Amino acid sequence: MANDRKICLSGKGLTKVFGFGRTKTVAVDHVDFNFYEGEIISIVGESGSGKTTLAKLLLGLINPTEGEIYFQGEKRDIRTHRKKKEYWKNIQAIFQDPFSSYNIFNKIDSVLLDCINMRGGRRLPKAQKIEMMTEACSFVNLKFEELTNKYPFELSGGQQQRLMIARVFLLKPKILLADEPTSMIDACSRATILDMLMQLRDEEGMTPIFITHDIGLAYYVSDTVYIMEKGKFVERGSADAVIIHPQEEYTRRLINDVPKIYEEWDLSTV
Ligand SMILES: Nc1ncnc2c1ncn2[C@@H]1O[C@H](COP(=O)(O)OP(=O)(O)OP(=O)(O)O)[C@@H](O)[C@H]1O
Ligand SMILES: [Mg+2]
Prior knowledge:
Helices cover 37% and strands 24% of the residues. With 270 residues, it is α/β, with parallel strands linked by helices. A hairpin with a 6-residue loop joins β1 and β2.
């Protein structure tokens, strides 16, 4: 199936080492991968396995110690500020801590306006910009009128995460990295947010990459699952192959941490 699809992002020997000598940590250790357009990818691993570091490498927030990243088949070049901004039109992220994603001195309307400007909408008439921001907010069930003049930190955790998705709605990146996008909210909002991301994938052709501890989530949402242990991909494949028929002990352990993710619940034993 993957043969007739385009590769959107790949890594070759991608490595990130923090520190030196005794304090050296190999956070990402020579990973190779091809992510295809429209494929739903999950990267699963225990805490400290290198998931966020890999996300930061992919985003270009930190530089690899070794190895290369290719975007749409070409070696990624983000050496200048302009090229970096150009790259960020294509790849965006939703992080564990929504706080860290905002400049706290920017009000919500300017957070959203920045997205319109980044997509080349700087010269659009003001009324049209307001219409776009209103549409983005209503996509995530927020009311734009109630948000103007507020700062992101004045929102609840769940609202902040939805605001991040409103940004994604305006930016329309090709790739969206979601690093534990739903960890701080309840199961109900979690489902809503997943729904919104899936809608963006279907309507905008966005490629979502979920980074999570939650192998149950990975099983339900993804086409391809990558299992990460100590900076390496130890197993990869279709969600069924990896989760129903895991080859690695480590993967089995991750699955056992989340019992009964794919079995029917047996209520007779409760
Ligand atoms: N800036 C840094 N400086 C030094 N070490 C770091 C830095 N960032 C991460 N590390 C180390 O790299 C390893 C991988 O960290 P990373 O944050 O990528 O893990 P993770 O898989 O995202 O974990 P979690 O599931 O807890 O978020 C850890 O050992 C961490 O301590
Ligand atoms: Mg992390």
